[in-house]
Amino acid sequence: MSLPTRFVKMAGGGNDFLLFEADGRKLSAEERRQIALLCRRGLSVGADGALFLSSGADGRVRLDYFNADGGLAAFCANGTRCAARYAVGRRLVAGQEPVLETGWGPISAHVDGEEVTLHLQPLPLPGDPISIRGEGLPSRATPMHVGVPHLVLFVDGDLSGVDVARLAPPLRNHPSLPEGANVDFVQILDRDRIRVRTYERGVERETLACGSGVVASAVVAARQRRVHTPVACGTRSGVDFTVTFEEENGMLVDATLTGDAREIFSAELTEDAWRA
């Protein structure tokens, strides 16, 4: 298979994606390298990752997600919300509630215009806190898995003053996290509101938002009794998300993530887009 030249640019809460109607399971190593070239900002289209939609089983849509470095990831919440809106808008599924087959498992969604809600798989409870170091950071942070690994830490004062680019890389590669992790810096604003900044693995920089990151942050904050659900989550993009969940029999169930999903433009790639 060769990568399609036609694509749609989408964004969810500040995360932006290249969306292709193609089977991502058939990509070669060279095509994954091309994804990384396309995701470069300034030199090509630029994106946080790429979404590949194809036919799934029983009327579902198959979604394969690749990070900006071309690496396959099990799950991207904002990418899944964008894929859900695209699938409904292009009538790849019937109705407003598509089910998307992701690397994490089937995820159902509800699409209401540009607002999309994901109904997530049952989540494990946060892990035991681990020791961390960093100027101005707390001494401990909490691992949390939301399809992909996260590390959540709470900061005092204004989150905008945190040097995420400097502080996050050592935490992203923390020795206690063999897969690495997205790093979520969290500020508590009120009993039902937080702000989140996330450094994403695979992108290897801070992004404007991270859907699974705000879920992880809201869950950890609520279980530490800092907030209660529903939790409004502000992001660097200025777009808010809403997170809800329940705890039952040692698991987190009925977890939802609601936010915007925008279709920005459709276009065709030229040869220059692939040029190294």
Topology diagram in text:
Layout: E1 6-12, E2 15-21, H1 29-38, E3 49-55, E4 61-67, E5 72-73, H2 77-89, E6 99-102, E7 105-112, E8 115-119, E9 123-124, E10 130-131, E11 140-145, E12 149-154, H3 164-172, E13 182-190, E14 193-200, E15 205-207, H4 211-223, E16 231-234, E17 240-248, E18 251-260, E19 262-268
Parallel strand pairs: 2-3, 4-6, 12-13, 14-16
Antiparallel strand pairs: 1-2, 1-19, 3-4, 4-5, 6-7, 7-8, 8-18, 9-18, 10-11, 11-12, 13-14, 14-15, 16-17, 17-18
Describe this protein's structure.
By secondary structure, this protein is of the alpha+beta class. The protein has 2 domains: 6-114 and 261-274, Diaminopimelate Epimerase, Chain A, domain 1 (Roll); 123-260, Diaminopimelate Epimerase, Chain A, domain 1, CATH 3.10.310. The protein is 16% helix and 41% strand. The chain has a 19-stranded mixed β-sheet that branches.
